Amino acid sequence: MRRLMSHLAQFSSISKQGELLCTQGLAHLLQNPDARRRFGEHISNLVCRTVDTDLTWQTEVRQQDGGRCDLQVSAGGKPIIKIEAKLDAPFGEGQLSSYVADLQKWSDGGLLLVLVPRRRTDETIVSVSRAFDLIGNGPWQLGDPPNCLLAVIYWEDVLEDLGIVGSEPFSGDLAQFRAMYRVLNGYDIEPLTSDSELLRWREKEEVFINLVDRVTRHLTQRDKVYPMGYEGDPNNYQRRYVCRPLGTDESCFSVGVRDPFAGHMTPIWFRFHRVTPKYSIIHERLFASSLSPSLIESGGHVWMPLDVPLNVDGELQIDSLVEQAERVIEVAYQPL
Hints:
Blueprint: H1 4-8, H2 12-15, H3 18-29, H4 33-47, E1 58-62, E2 68-75, E3 78-85, H5 95-106, E4 110-116, H6 121-132, E5 140-143, E6 146-154, H7 155-162, H8 170-184, H9 195-199, H10 205-219, E7 229-231, E8 237-246, E9 249-257, E10 268-272, H11 279-287, E11 296-298, E12 301-305, H12 314-332
Parallel strand pairs: 3-4, 4-6
Antiparallel strand pairs: 1-2, 2-3, 5-6, 7-8, 8-9, 9-10, 10-12, 11-12
Helix pairs in contact: 3-8, 10-12
């Protein structure tokens, strides 16, 4: 039987708070002294610097500039280690540099760790490198003279190392955390097994909204992910917008859930709204492409079905939906 949190985490109401859940969960796990010791050794091995293995981690500690890193260790009232933990959300403008500045202000030899899923390796290294004009894969020394160390670490590695701690109740807590983490990353969303399940999609509406949330986060190239929005009759369309540059403008599309158009079963749809900049160019490109037979015009907008594959896990569902969306994006956003 699936654990309760593992089951609940597939739903949007839980998954949209995924980073908070994981941060608070890790802080809870690190209350165990053996886990703290193992975590400190894990960090020390990665950054080639001795890290105290009996530290106390705090969540959401506010800096003087108003920034709040996810996890922080302080000594004598001064921050010495900060962790910024991510699942799907992009990095905010100036977010990492704010944490580095705070470490450099208060401590000598501070450490900033960026904790992400391994699937975000390349993207994260690019983001970190651009933020500080760095090269290589890290760890990086920052400052002149260097007084702050920056490194990217991975949830999967941390959880594997914490698994060495075999005592109870820690092992049970870690097992639940791992199960939740897998679902929040799309690994354990329950497979859809038949067309009839798609047609009864409103019975599991939150699962499909969760898929839309994951897919649009993958597609977003901005520092900010737009909120989910809702449009009532006639569409009853719950969607998120994603914007990309096209010429001198930024043109947007949405991916969301709605009742399928006639002849279709999928509740997940890609749409270009008729008022988005460069809509006429996008419209012409799409209908001149091989995608044309799948397109639907309704309400003056262009819609494209994104088919949810059957009998595959959540990770493959998300990959398939992203791939379908990127085929539309590739046609629509060709350089002018």
